[in-house]
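In this supplementary section we document a worked example of the pipeline. Step one takes a protein sequence of length 355 as its only input; no multiple sequence alignment statistics are reported here. Step two produces a three-dimensional model, which step three serialises into structure tokens for compact storage. The input and output of this example are shown verbatim.
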Amino acid sequence: MSNQALDQSRLENFLGQMVGDMSAAMGAIMTRIGERTGLYEALAGGGWLSSGEVAERAGCDARYVREWLGSQAAGGYVEYDADEDRFRLPDEHAAALVDEDSPFFMLGAFDLFASVWADEDRFVEAFRTGAGIGWHEHDHRLFRGTERFFRPGYRMHLVAEWIPALDGVEAKLKAGAKVADVGCGHGASTVIMAEAYPNSEFVGYDYHGDSITRARQVAAEAGLGERCVFEVATAQDFAGSGFDLVCNFDCLHDMGDPVGAASHTASALAPGGTYMIVEPIAGDSLADNLNPVGRMYYSASTVICTANALSQEPRTALGAQAGEPALRDVLQQAGFSHVRRAAETPFNMVLEARV
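The serialised model returned by step three reads:
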């Protein structure tokens, strides 16, 4: 194709977009280094600091830190005073970069990015063969990163907004209810609920044994004892019945048999019980999801969510951007006659379903 055939303005705009993407990709590595070396922590609350002072506070080599600070300043993560040659981490940025208990903490996502880069060769092979990639087959950083990425949002919204938005559920939990968290991963959502509702009992289920081990550790550290237990099981065969509330947090779309999972949930609910499905926010069509959140979720879905679903029969791959109509169809096939969107955030939608 000759240069004369190209719209030069359009080409330049796209190349500029690609440069931005390349900058962000390299910057993501700097972000992980900043957390792992304690550089963000060294900057937090310190006011204006020289690069040498930052290095000394973090116990890192000054020359590396100087270069790293250049990257951070160019990316807008830290502020730079050229006259004084000093750097500062604004408190608002520290809320996202330093405090893991902050509802705005975002660094878990960068663990996810590291995990998918590590698994690149496996993804390429899957594209060529159509084979699935089970959750348990991924680089280990995916599991911890998922916990760290989703936990701040759950901590901010789950007890304060999502559960109160469900019809009659909060009153049951306060009085004493039986709850199943299916696809619980490291148990962040389960533990948050168990801490908030001391009269209720919680069981977390996940097919990934290492995640269940971690969840048990988290519950023990929180002092939740026998009120919050975890078992290895799939969404289609978890034990127990008479649950007042069954939850799926950001996982129904990952399952190769979502109808089977929802059907099993229907049979496990107590009369009048509620099924809460928390899913990634999405519009009803691909065209509705052409935005930065949609780009991130489609990308993650390609190599994590869809890949896992294709590893499980019958290989029904909803994808992370399935949208509410597709999710409603799954729930209705499973026997749920009442489905409504109870709440939403910039990252999630919350569906309430009853038989």
